[in-house]
Amino acid sequence: MKFIKALWNPKLRSRTISYLVVVAAYILLQAMMATGNLSRLFTSLLVPVTAYTVAAIGLNLNVGISGELNLGQAGFMSIGAFTAVVVSALLEGAGVGALLRLVICIAAGALMAAVMGWLISIPVLKLRGDYLAIVTLAFGQIIMSLLNNVYVGLDPKGLHFAFVTNTIQMEPGGKLLISGPMGATGVSTASTFTAGFLLILIALAVVYNLMYSRNGRAIMASRDNRIAAESVGIKVSQAKTLAFVTASCLAGAAGALYALNYSSFAATKFDFNNSILLLVYVVLGGLGNMTGTVIATALLVVLPEMLRFLQNYRMLIYAIVLIVIMLVSNNEYLRLKMQQLKTKLTRKKGAPANE
Amino acid sequence: MSENNSQAPILEVTDLGIDFGGLTAVNDLNLNVYPNEIVGLIGPNGAGKTTVFNMLTKVYQPTRGTIKLLGQDTAKMTTIDVNKAGIARTFQNIRLFMNMSVLDNVLTGMHNDISYGNVSAIFRLPKYYQEEKEKTERAMELLKIFDLDQKADLIAGNLPYGEQRRLEIARALATQPKLLLLDEPAAGMNPQETEELMKTIRFVRDHFQIAVLLIEHDMKLVMGICERITVLNFGMMLMQGTPEEVRSNPDVIKAYLGE
Ligand SMILES: Nc1ncnc2c1ncn2[C@@H]1O[C@H](COP(=O)(O)OP(=O)(O)OP(=O)(O)O)[C@@H](O)[C@H]1O
Ligand SMILES: [Mg+2]
């Protein structure tokens, strides 16, 4: 009982709720799958949903907690994804089993994206205002164009690379891993829903643990008031870099998870639209609200699939639904009512408000 | 602390000046602050008081003159360096971390006093718990001084104005300064709150053995707690002296008090 109370204290409450929501959803979906109540379509969406959720959690750290607009999160996913494809092929050649292969690929994807995020942040985060948004946007476009023109082959001699035109000459037994606009091909899948579920929990733990720590406070302080943050000795650009790199890292992990779920995929899977969609999930779920991000991502990844019956009108209706949700969730009156409800509930449960 | 306090100043400002384009906002300012003193900086609106604070904390780079902190020239220092070297401040237009809790605002002030890194934080190693516990205790003590300990978990932005001003002082003290700069700490407070604040400022000075330089329009507060006062007018130093001397100086009365 004391333990439960501790989990419900203000600092841990949001974290507890996040974990509970994710675990409950996992159990429910597993039960539905076991009893055959989940359609093939939904089953096929499970891993992508978890991947997008992880990327969106990272993005919320960047946008909600650090307060910097990032329009290139999908670009970092693609770095993780293509890294995973190459690493996976190498590991497969070495006879590594699927589970270990997945774990290593996720780690490699996360690391690669983090390094990339760090490199980009060096020139950018020293600047102020919307520069980061613009650079991340450009980065997303550039990385997609690059990956659209990359050829990677693997043969007994090792890896071969080519750019723009496929000039790779391989020995017998060689295999083309990435073939330009066709993207990654012949990937041995390894991702599972359970792996995605665990990755979400890890992402949440990383973000929450960071938030409630010395540097997490520095990140939030730099967002709330830059001058005041410096006045208490905080290096604002360092704090912002940490948030940005962690966000990139999580996107890389998500990309790797996503990649090893498909036998083939193209770089255009991670285009600007996807970066914007991730941002939409974050904004709809609430800036800084991780539970909201998880729920919004799950619903909004599934929604367009549920609207398939609308055929050509699908994206139109999807857009309208998004706008309606935005309007409703930003409605002052509704917000006020929710706030009142919230205080009412907490008053009843907790000790009398001390004022 | 000891008798040689009055010898070496904590802060030594010599011929300080700054121009904004064609406008000279501050010129030829000379000001020393000694350990354990409470010094007032007064002057009419637009006299350049806040600008002096901004130069001391390197929010603005002075155009002329030198600032020495504990004998060390601050010419090459950044805002962050200056804080590490021992100056903490509050702001005329309150600059709290409005979306963070009251406690977290103070803990943020201890940023450079916490040594665990990201690994300890993300993996929640014992070092994390140990240091967070220590700092939280110290933060709660600070909040208690400002009568905010009951509100530790509230969001700073939801506090009433007077409490926000006090929280800002607590956050500044969390950085363990040797010199505390207060920019109109009593602005927006009622007489009773101002009275309390005066007591608190004196207590803080004695308890932490620090010097205080404060800007204030409330003459009762300034005359009541400052041992020395510097008067600015149009960016120039009008005079420097004890509250008695300032009160009876005809120039000051003309420029400021009698307005
Ligand atoms: N960044 C800036 N750029 C241009 N002018 C500035 C800047 N900062 C301050 N000033 C000018 O310098 C002068 C002094 O301003 P300052 O804020 O220091 O006055 P103050 O004494 O604090 O006044 P108050 O009592 O109203 O707070 C004013 O004329 C102001 O307009
Ligand atoms: Mg001022």
Can you put this structure into words, describing what you see?
The complex is a heterodimer of chains A (355) and B (259). Chain A has helices spanning 2-7, 10-34, 40-65, 73-93, 98-124, 131-147, 193-211, 214-224, 226-231, 236-259, 272-285, 290-306, 314-329, 332-349; strands spanning 150-155, 158-163, 175-179. Chain A is mainly alpha-helical and 355 residues long. Chain A has a domain at 17-140 and 193-262 and 273-314. Chain A has a 3-stranded antiparallel beta sheet, with helices on one face. In chain A, helix 4 packs antiparallel against helix 5, helix 4 (73-93) runs parallel beside helix 6 (131-147) and helix 5 runs antiparallel to helix 10 (236-259). Residues 349-355 of chain A have low confidence and may be disordered. Chain B has 259 residues and is of the alpha/beta class. Helix content of chain B is 39%, strand content 23%. Chain B has a 6-stranded mixed beta sheet, with helices on both faces. In chain B, strands 2-1-4-5 form a 4-stranded antiparallel beta sheet, covered by helices on one side. In chain B, helix 3 packs parallel to helix 6 and helix 5 crosses helix 6 (161-174). The relative contact order of chain B is 0.17. Chain A binds chain B through residues 10, 205-206, 209-210, 213-218, 220-221, 223-225, 227-235, 242, 288, 354, and chain B through 57, 59, 78-80, 83-84, 88-89, 91, 95-101, 104, 107-109, 111-112, 114, 116, 118, 121-124, 128, 132, 150, 153, 171-172, 174-175. The complex binds adenosine-5'-triphosphate and magnesium ion. Magnesium ion binds next to helix 1 of chain B.
